[in-house]
Design brief:
The protein has 290 residues and is mostly helical. It has eight helices and three strands; from the N terminus they run αααααααββαβ.
Length: 290
């Protein structure tokens, strides 16, 4: 199986998982009147939209660079992750409004039955399975879109667990627990939304990724032919990392030798940092002290 096909397959399975969870939660939430389960259904519904966006994003982001997109289409993944952030925040508005309304107006009895627990436990199981698969694929392909999708499913694990405890309390007549559980879900979602949004905006604004500069400088220092380096610039677009740097070499060496140094440095960096595109500018060194 090709890497691109494997990446798309992981995203597509998540779409089907989200469809299953959304439908199951919605049916049980409506029949029981549980705000906790209904909030989870809405959360999973937005996860479904996010999974669809992720699937489309990974299809587009792997397209090669063309005349109009010289650096490729990788930032489509970052845009999709930002879109998922907005979807998560929309979830919170509805959950908080409904929870506050139920807490202010008084207890609302809900029908807690065996299906209430089955749907939540099933959700936790599927979410755990999908989040692990997505995190593994995100790391393998260096994909922010898959990482965002993984966060969606892993967030569902915590929120479903909270709802499960709310149902247990409601089973013993404390119906406020369901609305309180829904509020906790909203807090969890808000936290994850800010994390996703910050990461996406950082990439879209070409913020230099953390820990990459020390890694590059360590590689440069292994090459004694490079007398000095400066103006290291790093940015990411989807799974790709673009690196530019200037190096100084002995001024009396041939152009061919200077080119060979630059190529070996590019190969060393590319070999250490997956999917990196390296541009090295060569300058003759003018400092007699070096």
């Amino acid at each position: 199986m090709s890497l691109n096909l494997e990446k798309k397959q992981v995203a597509l399975i998540s779409v089907f998982a989200a469809i299953l969870l959304t439908s199951f939660k919605l049916i049980i939430g409506i029949t029981t009147g549980s705000l906790g389960i209904l909030s989870e259904a809405l959360h999973s519904g937005l996860d479904l939209v996010a999974a669809l966006v992720t699937f489309l994003a990974v299809r587009i982001s792997d397209k090669p660079a063309d005349h109009d997109h010289n650096y490729g289409h990788g930032k489509v993944e970052n845009l999709s992750a930002l879109f998922e952030t907005l979807l998560l925040l929309l979830t919170c508005f509805w959950i908080i409004y409904e929870s506050a309304n139920r807490l202010i107006t008084g207890a609302v009895e809900i029908k807690v039955n065996v299906w209430s627990f089955i749907v939540v436990i099933t959700s936790i199981t599927i979410d755990y399975w999908r989040s692990r698969a997505l995190f593994k694929a995100a790391k393998k392909f260096n994909s922010q879109a898959l990482h965002a999708d993984a966060l969606h499913f892993s967030t569902d694990i915590w929120s479903s667990t909270v709802v499960l405890f709310g149902l247990i309390f409601s089973r013993f007549g404390f119906f406020h627990a369901d609305a309180i559980a829904a509020l906790i879900v909203a807090i969890i979602v808000i936290y994850v939304s800010f994390q996703l949004g910050k990461n996406s905006i950082d990439v879209l604004l070409d913020k230099s990724p953390e820990n990459r500069l020390p890694e590059i400088e360590k590689i440069v220092k292994t090459m004694p032919e490079v007398l000095y380096h400066h103006d290291v610039k790093i940015r990411t677009a989807g799974a790709d990392i673009f690196i530019d740097l200037n190096i100084h070499v002995e001024r009396n060496i041939t152009v061919e030798d200077a080119h060979d140094i630059a190529e070996r440095l590019k190969d060393a960096i590319s070999g250490s940092i997956a999917r990196s595109h390296v541009m090295v500018h060569i300058e003759p060194d003018n400092d007699p002290q070096r």
